[in-house]
Amino acid sequence: MRENENSLKKKHISFLHKKLNFRSFSYFSTFLLFVFIFALYAMTFAAPARAEIEPVTPPTDANGVYQISTAGHLVFFSDVVNGTNGQTRDTNASAVLLADIDLTAANGGTEYGWTPIGDGSNSYTGTFDGGGYTIDGLSINSPDDDYIGLFGNIDGGNVKNLTVRTAGADTGSGVYAVAGYRYVGIIAGYINNGAVIENCATHGSVQATDSYTGGVVGLSDETGAATSISGCVNNAVVHSAGDRVGGIAGYNGCTVSNCTNNGKVTGGGLNIGGIVGFNYIKVTNCTNNAAVSGDKRTGGIAGACTSGTVSNCTNNGTVTGDGGTGGIVGFGHGCTVTNCTNTEEVSGSATTGGIVGWCNSGVRLTDCMNLGNVTGGGDVGGVWGYAVNSPTVENCGFLQTETINNGLSGAGKDGSSGGITAITTDDAAQKVVTTLSASIDNAMIAHGGTATITLSTSPGMPSDAFDQTSGVVRGGRAESSNLNVATAAYNDNGTITVAGIAEGTATITVKATLHVTDLSALSDDSLLAYSVDGEEVSFTFDVTVSNVALESISLSPASDDIEMKIGDTQSFSIIYSPTNATNKSVTWSASSEGIVNITDNGNGTATVEATGAGAATITATSADGGLTASVTVTVTAAETGPEPTPEPEPEPETPQSSGGGGGGCSAGFGALALFALIPLVLRKKK
């Protein structure tokens, strides 16, 4: 009996072993299947590794200035300034770009992207001239690091005439191409001690994890009185979860002039502004054209302004905040706001004003106009919203109609509206003039070329604005600091023509007397009175005159077997190298008469008309005669006689199905299916 029991136990155990072995094999097969699928996915969708750009030694000119024309040259220059990759550190090295640079493949030898030129310990002190060229594809992913930008820290150095595009704009996913912790800007994270950033443009996206973020510069330190940011344009999205965020600079301790912001600015903390987040010194002749949103102290031009000035500035972007929200300045303390215009909606939960949201003490508002609708939960005014001590207000106004600022007073609750006038029609508001601004179309002028500076008034632009006798802008004049480099001539229509004479740099100063609208003297909205005395307004622009030599020209199309028939026309265009050569003038000629006629269309293009049978060589010659480009055209007589009868089109064939489609993919998935069936086959056999 016991033997039978033992025999049964052995059989049962044997059965369990077989069953467990089968299950183990089944589980193992399934595991292998998933491993195979994962490997196939990885091979198919894995991102390619980003290549690193190797440094290449650039040539230098007689003054030791690096001549940069490739990404490898720029990486080498960064190594020299930073003292990395075996280079002896030279923070005073200077460079000039001679071509556009693409940094898409650059990672600076690390996983974090581009390594900034200069850092917190070793500031850049040299001069970097972009020459009007563009650095593209900038990417920095260092959310825990300070001093982030193309340049990390500039101490007394100069960056000018440069455009920088980051690797991409924010797509709404919260991923920014240039990212750091503090002191983050696309051109430079931090500048001080006389550093100058001029005539630069930025595109893409930038953010700081903590604070001090700007589209151009993160922070300009107040210790350097000569430090300045001028003639810069930001088109990048600017964001920070923290404080001090601005379209041009997060914190401004210098003079910011002639700058424009076109990129959305957002911040999660204090001091968020369309031009600067926090202004300690001066912002003048600047324009914001993008939406600005923040928590507290949010302004269309400056989030906060203490002991500084904001003058001749215009905000054309919506402003949204919590406390201390203003069309020009969010929070003011000991500051002066003069000759400024806001044209867009301003909304906040409280302490909201069309010009200044919160006036702490010592605030002065002069000759300012608000056209935007102002809304908020409390302490809301057409000009200023809330004041600890009422500001000094002279000749300020706001639009008040049935749909805009209806029922709103010029000052916030319990505030005095002295010095404030309500303008009650749109037509009258568009005739008011409180601001004069100036812009230049090109700060890089070719030798023998010209640039134009344009004056404009806001919020209104009267047709006779520049009449020297009765206009709002009178006595206009312009002068150059170096007539051997560039001249400046004031025109009667409010424009200034700047002419390039010789290579070099010159400062163009434009002055005019602005007769603002005397709002308090208006008897009704149809009668506008201008101030009798007026006030002088001045603007300065630094222009560079260059003489870039033309190195080569070629024709497009470039084929030597171009065939034409009499009566045909063919367009040709010149391809210049470099593209920013100063003199691109060419002359066109043909080797044989009577075969073609050439019409010079200007701008390096020509139209060739075939007039007779034969062959002719078309030649373009540079102005100095040193460069030529040629193509040969063959002209034949036009065909005559009756047109051939077109043959009937054949009936379309019915497509036949065929096997073999899918190739490797079908085979691969078929193999996977067979592999997955192995456990089922084994189960049946058992």
Short descriptors:
nine-stranded parallel β-sheet; 5 domains; 686 residues; mainly beta
Question: Could you characterize what this model shows?
Answer:
This protein has 686 residues and is mainly β. The chain has 5 domains: 46 residues; 196 residues; 118 residues, 3 Solenoid (Pectate Lyase C-like); 78 residues, no CATH class; 85 residues, Immunoglobulin-like (Sandwich), CATH 2.60.40. Helices cover 12% and strands 43% of the residues. It has a 22-stranded parallel sheet that branches. Strands 8-11-14-19-24-29-33-37-42 form a 9-stranded parallel sheet, with no helix packed on it. An 8-stranded parallel beta barrel has the order 13-17-22-27-32-28-23-18. Strand 58 and strand 59 form a beta hairpin. It is globular and about 90 Å long.
Secondary structure topology:
Elements: H1 2-45, E1 66-68, H2 71-82, E2 95-97, E3 101-102, E4 127-129, E5 134-138, E6 140-141, E7 146-148, E8 151-155, E9 158-166, E10 178-185, E11 188-192, E12 196-203, E13 205-214, E14 217-220, E15 228-230, E16 233-234, E17 237-240, E18 245-246, E19 249-252, E20 255-257, E21 260-261, E22 265-267, E23 270-273, E24 276-279, E25 282-284, E26 287-288, E27 292-293, E28 296-299, E29 302-306, E30 309-311, E31 314-315, E32 319-326, E33 329-333, E34 336-338, E35 341-342, E36 346-353, E37 356-359, E38 364-366, E39 369-370, E40 374-375, E41 380-381, E42 384-387, E43 392-394, E44 396-399, E45 420-423, H3 426-429, E46 433-440, E47 444-446, E48 450-459, E49 473-480, E50 486-490, E51 495-500, E52 504-514, E53 535-546, E54 552-556, E55 562-565, E56 569-577, E57 586-590, E58 596-602, E59 605-610, E60 614-622, E61 628-636, H4 663-685
Parallel strand pairs: 1-2, 2-4, 3-5, 4-9, 5-9, 6-10, 7-10, 8-11, 9-12, 10-13, 11-14, 12-15, 12-16, 13-17, 13-18, 14-19, 15-20, 16-21, 17-22, 18-23, 19-24, 20-25, 21-26, 22-27, 23-28, 24-29, 25-30, 26-31, 27-32, 28-32, 29-33, 30-34, 31-35, 32-36, 33-37, 34-38, 35-39, 36-40, 36-41, 37-42, ...
Antiparallel strand pairs: 46-48, 48-51, 49-52, 50-51, 52-53, 54-56, 56-59, 57-60, 58-59, 60-61
Helix pairs in contact: 1-4
